From TrEMBL:
Keywords: Decarboxylase, Lyase, Membrane, Thiamine pyrophosphate, Transmembrane, Transmembrane helix
Record-annotated Thiamine pyrophosphate enzyme TPP-binding domain positions: 33-166
Protein name, per record: Thiamine pyrophosphate enzyme TPP-binding domain-containing protein
SUPFAM superfamilies linked: Thiamin diphosphate-binding fold (THDP-binding)
PANTHER family: SULFOPYRUVATE DECARBOXYLASE, SULFOPYRUVATE DECARBOXYLASE SUBUNIT ALPHA
Database matches in NCBIfam families: PRK06163.1
Name of one Pfam family that matches: TPP_enzyme_C
């Protein structure tokens, strides 16, 4: 699907739609900035991990979680600018083939949180085509909100890694993540059942 045929959606709305579908303690890794601000605002879950700094590492971190806990479905939320900094992660994920990992790219064509500078690939590169070219055949643009929900439902049942790309507007994140790295880490590790609460 050409990105010009997709509806421009709202990140918080799309994130809320994802969270509403999670019923089995699925892990969600929120990339830096607005991706995790909206994850924070969409509803706290012990299985949410809110990244601070580390631009471009939501997918690599999610890959680690997916490999460590193959019985748990893992979702990763990332902005287009962050993904462009770490494109090699896509081919690594394709090669390792985690059955339980779905990547969601929120594409607004700008580095929004630092001043809305256009990304180098804005209007030129097709993130889904890049993902497919990296070996992730199970990749698609969400045409609209209902299509996004359908793609998430399919991701819940698939046995291969995949990527869902969403064109989003330039609205800022709804919340602001509490910047306490130790608390974020401990809460997430407890949520994944690998550590007792402090």
């Amino acid at each position: 699907m050409n990105t010009r045929n997709t509806k421009v959606m709202n990140r918080f709305d799309v994130t809320s739609r994802l969270i509403a579908k999670l019923k089995h303690e699925e892990a969600v890794i929120g990339g830096i900035g607005n991706s995790n601000f909206d994850l924070w605002a969409a509803g706290h879950r012990p299985q949410n991990f809110y990244m601070l700094g580390s631009m471009g590492l939501a997918f690599p971190i999610a890959l680690g979680v997916a490999l460590a806990q193959p019985g748990r479905r893992v979702f990763a939320l990332e902005g287009d600018g962050s993904l462009l900094m770490q494109l090699g992660a896509l081919s690594t994920i394709a090669a390792l083939k985690p059955k339980n990992l779905t990547m969601i790219v929120m594409d607004n064509g700008v580095y929004q949180i630092t001043g809305a500078q256009p990304t180098p690939a804005a209007g030129i590169a097709d993130i889904v085509a890049i993902a497919i070219g990296s070996g992730l055949a199970n990749s698609a643009w969400a045409a609209d909100e209902e299509d996004f929900e359908r793609l998430v439902d399919e991701a819940m049942a698939t046995t291969e890694p995949g990527l869902i790309a969403v064109r989003i507007d330039d609205k800022p994140g709804v919340g602001t993540t509490r910047r306490d790295p130790v608390q974020i880490r401990e809460r997430f590790m407890h949520g994944l059942g690998v550590r007792e609460p402090l």
